Amino acid sequence: MSPAKILLVDDDRNLVELVKLRLDAAGYEVSAALLEEDAVEAAKAQVFDLALVDLQLANQDGISLMEQLHLIIPEMPVIILTAYGSIESAVEAMKRGAYSYITKPFDPRDLLLQIERALENRRLTSEIKLLKGLLQQRYDFANIVARSGKMQRVLEMVSQIAAMDSTVYIQGESGTGKELIARAIHLASHRKNKSFVAINCAALPEPLLESELFGHEKGAFTGAVRSTKGLFTQAHEGTIFLDEVGDIPLSTQTKLLRVLQERSFYPVGSDRLTEVDVRVIVATQKRLEDQVKQGLFREDLFYRIHVIPILLPPLRERKEDIPPLVEHFLKKFSQIMRKEVKGLTPLAIQRLMLHNWPGNVRELENTVEYGVALTQQDVITEDLILRTQEDISEQPLTPLKEAKDAFERNYVIRLLELCEGNVSKAAALAGKYRADFYDLLKKHNISKTSYKKSEPEA
Ligand SMILES: Nc1ncnc2c1ncn2[C@@H]1O[C@H](COP(=O)(O)OP(=O)(O)OP(=O)(O)O)[C@@H](O)[C@H]1O
Ligand SMILES: [Mg+2]
After folding, report:
1. Which residue among 362, 363, 366, 367 is best mutated to probe the pocket of ligand 1, counting the most ligand atoms within 8 A of its Cβ?
2. N or C, where is the chain less crowded by C-beta within 10 Å?
């Protein structure tokens, strides 16, 4: 941490010299001003962490100088130096925003103690502010649906750790939102205006991966006709997201370890050390602990990246998130496809709730997209929700007679829908006599009139 900067304002040259000596010795960086104007100029030129201001200055009282300084550096704590007997003014100074006061002549150790306390207090207030801001941002995760307690805890974690630079380790099955969370962390951090660079480490063969990550010099390998910057350099002052980090080959892991330890690396084929300031977020579907046991992943690297673990639960373990997710995606795709789709039929929703979602949120997103694309009504009906064999076999098996009857009933209804209640047509389509078709209607207690377009049911 850089030394705290202190502005010292007093017209007593001897005292200034004495105090400056003491503070210098204590490791502070002190700028002294004998004149008020000089103090104001200094405050305009740099941000001080604290000011010591004499109450009785040559041309001005210390309180109004303090107020002037606060217009330039609002959060800076000010300690008032006051002569014995002017307690009243000191109290007045406190009311107008001084942090504390100390009476001359003072024990330098007391002064140091007060300075330390003021600086600590300043740090805490700015931290509290930061936390409050982050709490606010929690509700700014507008594109992340999190109704379940599990996901709410994830978001809480995200807002707590976003501001730090520590490495984040996100584990979750495919489609659980690992990249979404990584981006949210970046956007909630002070790096948000710099780049977020993502790479899928499983997608590239070893030599390519290394040069992607760290860049290479011209001629470093066949085909390297130009030198290129690697992703770590592109992410400088921003965030790099290493997806499927478990698939990084062992040789590249060594290089990665070095970057994490020293924030520096050599591009492929280069002997120029490159330094970077990046926040690293990694993601993995597999449990890396197992990879470590099998000797596929360096243990020391594992501990380097496993700093702040975030576990994204599979969708089947937080099904209460399904309805709001459906709503979210419905809105998204209705907008994109310019269709007004209001919702899903209860049966359609039920099918979604019963499904096991091996592809997690991405699979749900695709399902809703398919439904919005194909529906010709303002709702998505259950027939647009494709069921897997597994879903179907989860339904209890019914006796053949019941299954046949159910099929027959549905069949008749669909025929009537198609023919708008015209029994002659429906019977013809089914290859039945009219009289037999009437028997079917009676058997299943179906009224043909409810399928007639204009005639309401009698
Ligand atoms: N909680 C959520 N709220 C809204 N959308 C979500 C949520 N979780 C995931 N998604 C969406 O689901 C899709 C998949 O998410 P993402 O790509 O982040 O998952 P992933 O874990 O990185 O998947 P993979 O392992 O396949 O790379 C994205 O379109 C994402 O926007
Ligand atoms: Mg991903």
Report:
1. 362
2. N
Give the Å distance between the CA of 305 and the centre of ligand 2: 17
* Paired residues of 56 in beta bridges: 61
pLDDT of residue 451: 81
Q: For residue 250, which of 216, 210, 222, 215 has the smallest C-alpha distance?
A: 210
DSSP secondary structure letter of residue 399? P
Question: Tokens standing for 314?
Answer: 């599979």
Residue 158 tokens read as: 């995200």
The whole-angstrom separation of Cα 436 and Cα 427 is 8
The C-alpha R_g of the chain, in whole angstroms, comes to: 35
Angle between helices 423-430 and 400-418 (to 10 degrees): 130
| Ligand 1 atom 9: residue of nearest CA | 177
What is each CA distance from 428 to 21, 432, 434, in whole angstroms?
Answer: 108, 6, 8
Q: What is the pLDDT of residue 355?
A: 86
180 lines ligand 1 (CB under 6 A): yes
Alpha-carbon span 20 to 36, nearest angstrom:
17
What average pLDDT values come out for the chain (458 residues) when binned by 10 residues?
Answer: 91 93 95 94 88 88 89 82 82 89 91 94 70 48 87 93 94 96 93 94 87 85 76 96 94 92 90 94 94 94 95 93 91 92 83 88 95 92 78 63 83 86 88 90 87 56
Q: Ligand 1 centroid to 260 CA: how many Å?
A: 26
Cα(343) to ligand 2 centroid in Å equals: 28
Contacts of 237 (CB under 8 A, 6+ apart): 191, 194, 277, 278
Answer whether 0.70 is exceeded by the pTM: no
CA distances from 45 to 28, 40, 59, 98, 257 (A): 18, 9, 22, 21, 40
